[in-house]
Amino acid sequence: MIRRGALLAATLLALATCRPSPERVAARSDSASRVSYPTDEVALADSVILLSGAADKDIEGLAFSPDGRLLATADNGGRVVLWDWRAGREVRRFPGRNFTEVRFSPDGRFLAAAGFDSLVRIWRLETGEELRRLPQPAEIEALAYSPDGRLLAAAGGDRVIHLWDAREMRKLRTLVGHTDAVYSVSFSSDGRSLVSGSRDRTLRIWDVASGRQTALLSGHNDSIYAVVFSTDGRLIATGCRDGTVRLWDASSGTVLRQFVGHTNSVHGIALSPDNRLLASASFDSTARVWNAQTAEPVKVLRGHGRDVNDIAFSADGRWLATVSDDRTGRVWKIP
């Protein structure tokens, strides 16, 4: 995920993994963060829970835990915050620098985050211990675990997708083909394919086992900021700098539907677990929910005061989370 106006991080010379000094991150009991129910008229129409007070910089990334109990947010001030969002409690903070992305491992045991310091940091969720730092040659804009948790994909300013063995913490291979920065990656549900979106305005589909590019999809007229596979692997949703959202047939590479309504860049994209709904986050300060089968709008989520940077469905599809440059997260009830 791109952060506008950010400088490129310095290239790291070391290509091998590095192990930090053991560090445990204390749980938060005296947090200054707030979890509250909005009182402003606009937000009351849509927002269920407002998460604020934990960030003093723009919040760039978020992820629900696999069981939906926890929510992680990542800001470019160098904090990953773990929330028990239903209880209104900040659980833990994980330190770093200039985060853009955060992801839970599929088994919920680990948390990975990355950003403009060109490092992927991995923590043990239960204890907060930082286990490893995986160096990349450039700033990191995209991060994804494979469905079985064995692989971790990271990509960014060097135009290359790096595949890591998430258990042994070693690099397996690189996927080379994009001609500009890679902003988003997503694995198919069977873990055999990976899709990537780039500033070069293309989508590329890769065979994970061989590292071979199997398809190149074009059609967007500007940078592709967000990509996601559907849970059945048949569809790919994309969000573009030109404000459009598209739904693609993953097999044929054809555009099935286009979703029009945002008035600025689409920076985050998500499909509900049943693939019936598509959600998008935009720099127009809104998130939108669409009928994925008809491209008709279902709801416009208003309440954020600035750019909305990322969006995610909970595993049960009942909740939708967003984060913004207004330094807050919001959790919305899905109609």
Can you offer a commentary on this structure?
It is a single chain. By secondary structure, the protein is mostly beta strands. It has a single domain, classed as YVTN repeat-like/Quinoprotein amine dehydrogenase (Methylamine Dehydrogenase, Chain H), CATH 2.130.10.10. It is built from one helix and 29 strands. The chain has one helix at residues 41-44; strands at 34-36, 47-52, 59-64, 71-75, 79-84, 89-95, 99-104, 110-115, 119-124, 130-135, 140-145, 151-156, 160-165, 170-176, 182-187, 193-198, 202-207, 213-218, 224-229, 235-240, 245-249, 255-259, 266-271, 277-282, 287-291, 297-301, 308-313, 319-324, 329-333. The strands form seven sheets. It has a five-stranded antiparallel beta sheet with strand order 1-2-29-28-27, with no helix packed on it. The chain has a four-stranded antiparallel beta sheet with strand order 3-4-5-6, with no helix packed on it. It has a four-stranded antiparallel beta sheet with strand order 7-8-9-10, with no helix packed on it. A hairpin with a 5-residue loop joins β19 (224-229) and β20. Mean pLDDT is 88; it is low at 3-45.
Write the layout of secondary structure elements.
Layout (H helix, E strand, L loop, with lengths): L33 E3 L4 H4 L2 E6 L6 E6 L6 E5 L3 E6 L4 E7 L3 E6 L5 E6 L3 E6 L5 E6 L4 E6 L5 E6 L3 E6 L4 E7 L5 E6 L5 E6 L3 E6 L5 E6 L5 E6 L5 E6 L4 E5 L5 E5 L6 E6 L5 E6 L4 E5 L5 E5 L6 E6 L5 E6 L4 E5 L2
Antiparallel strand pairs: 1-2, 2-29, 3-4, 4-5, 5-6, 7-8, 8-9, 9-10, 11-12, 12-13, 13-14, 15-16, 16-17, 17-18, 19-20, 20-21, 21-22, 23-24, 24-25, 25-26, 27-28, 28-29
